[in-house]
Write a structure and sequence with these properties.
about 260 residues, alpha/beta, Rossmann fold, eight-stranded mixed beta sheet, 10 helices, elongated
């Protein structure tokens, strides 16, 4: 059994931070868990809850910054003095670049991350990037995030905009597809509740098959598409101008552009 990852401080226990914390606590990846939040968020059993950094005894091995970007400065006050030489400081704040986080915190081993919502059930994807990290640092963070799903290291920070547009926003695209499929089923004559159950089961089942089957998405699509059959007719309609690939490409471009705008605000 691998060693645990020491003491975790989560600064900001809102929606994303709280979901990640619950998953880390559930999988028992760390020895100690501290949520630092002046509010009254739901806190999992076995997690200490304090309002500020100066109330915590002992120093952290991993710090996760999960506050709104404009709250980073007050929320991280006093953090630098508590960092050990090998403490990892991980940001889940959308749009904030490493240089700005390092400037605000004052130093430390800063890592930028972008998780998505399925991390809450261990089926998420998290993009990671950091500079001046040792192999041990990367191994620790890979283990830390693999209990939430896939941990994907980026080659350069500039790739975060595209990653945000694909995996960060991607679950919403899939949920929108499920909505559209259910609505189309209803318009084709199915009761609304049945159409929704069929769409939900189809989307979740197809995702599970894609994750577990060694074949790629295009191979799985061809396997279910009989020549001149119903699936081919439906796919041809999806590909009519401008077509689904173009719509998805436009959605990713728009989300990536907005990510770049947020970084400059």
């Amino acid at each position: 059994m691998q060693n645990k990852l020491g003491t975790l401080w989560l600064i900001g226990a809102g929606n994303m931070g709280g979901s990640l914390l619950a998953r880390w606590r559930e999988t028992d990846i760390c020895d100690r868990y501290v949520a630092i939040d002046p509010g009254d968020p739901p806190i999992p059993d076995g997690v200490e809850h304090v309002a500020s950094i100066d109330e915590v005894e002992g120093d952290p091995d991993i710090v996760v910054l999960a506050v709104k970007p404009h709250l980073l400065e007050p929320a991280s006050k006093g953090l630098l003095a508590r960092l050990k030489e090998d403490t990892l400081v991980v940001s889940v704040m959308a749009g904030l670049q490493l240089s700005r986080i390092r400037e605000t915190v004052g130093g430390g081993k800063i890592v930028r991350s972008m998780p998505n919502t399925p991390t809450a059930i261990g089926k998420g994807v998290t993009g990671l990037f950091g500079t001046d990290l040792t192999e041990r640092d990367r191994d620790r963070l890979t283990r830390f995030y693999e209990v939430t799903g896939v941990a994907a290291w980026l080659e350069e920070e500039a790739q975060f905009d595209a990653l945000t547009a694909v995996s960060g926003s991607g679950p919403a695209y899939i949920f929108r597809m499920a909505e559209a499929l259910a609505a189309a089923g209803e318009s084709a004559g199915l009761p609304a509740d049945l159409a929704y159950r069929l769409a939900e089961g189809t989307v979740s089942g197809a995702g599970a098959l894609l994750a577990h089957d060694p074949r790629k998405a295009d191979e799985l699509r061809r396997a279910v598409t009989s020549p001149n059959g119903t699936t081919q007719a439906g796919l041809e309609a999806l590909d009519e101008d401008p077509g689904l690939p173009a719509l998805v490409r436009n959605a990713v471009r728009a989300a990536a552009a907005r990510s770049r705008e947020l970084a400059s605000e």
